[in-house]
Amino acid sequence: MQTGPFTLAIDIGGSNIKAAVLDARGGVVADKLRMPTPRPATQAAVLEGIAALAARLPRVERMSVGFPGVVRRGIVRTAANLGSEEWRGFNLVEALARRFAVPARVLNDAAVQGLGVVEGHGLECVVTLGTGVGCAIFRNRRLLLHLELGYDAAIGQAALEAIGTEAWNERVIQALRAVMSLTACDMLYVGGGNARMLTSELPRHARIVSNVAGVTGGVRLWEPEMDELFAGVPDAQRRADWEGAS
Fold first, then answer.
1. 103: CATH
2. Are residues 13 and 65 in the same domain?
3. Taking the model in full, what pTM does it have?
4. Is position 1 within any domain?
5. Residue 34 belongs to what domain range?
6. Cα-based distances in Å from 207 to 120, 128, 157
7. In this predicted model, what pLDDT tens digit does every residue of 50-109 receive, in sequence order?
8. How many domains does the chain have?
9. Is the Cβ–Cβ distance between 39 and 157 less than 8 Å?
10. DSSP structural state of residue 37
């Protein structure tokens, strides 16, 4: 049985914006939708894109967004893969809450993907392969930090197109080994849209995970253990009183 509160989960990528509605357990209750990321990817254009997807989905009580850059306390610090400097300093949580009239929480997209796949066994690392390259580290299923590794130019989408799949695979495997050495993680998960292009054998204790976790992981942003991460962010901390409304 599907139960609320229902969450509008958005994954903003450098190539596509994806959306779905999730129940309280993270189950998808409406078909996942996608659209190309606008070019140029201005604040207004991206918000309009999200609104267009949301209009095709059921109503929700809250929303979660994975963003391709550094986000601190709801404010965007970097957005290199959207190609627009105007994002720097933008209060995305406030803009979302005002536009959609529901509480919003925003986290780096690699961190959201990780929340959807980590199993809670020691130190786990998530690397996402897409337009750029994301990374997040977890301990016992709790997010520790999101990392900007600087691999975008080497193994991002542009590199894949420039050097071809075989050479790109070699680079990716080298990068994954470096990340595993750097973090000493117990398990490495590889996600993102370009993970499907990996044909080489992965290092031991590394595995590919479904890219759908970039959306379904959004429900975990509303777990009580995440509250401290969003403390002091009014439009993120305010919560719908589901029991009182039902």
1. 3.30.420.40
2. yes
3. 0.90
4. no
5. 7-110+213-245
6. 15, 12, 20
7. 999 999 999 999 999 999 999 988 999 999 889 878 899 999 999 999 999 999 999 999
8. 2
9. no
10. P
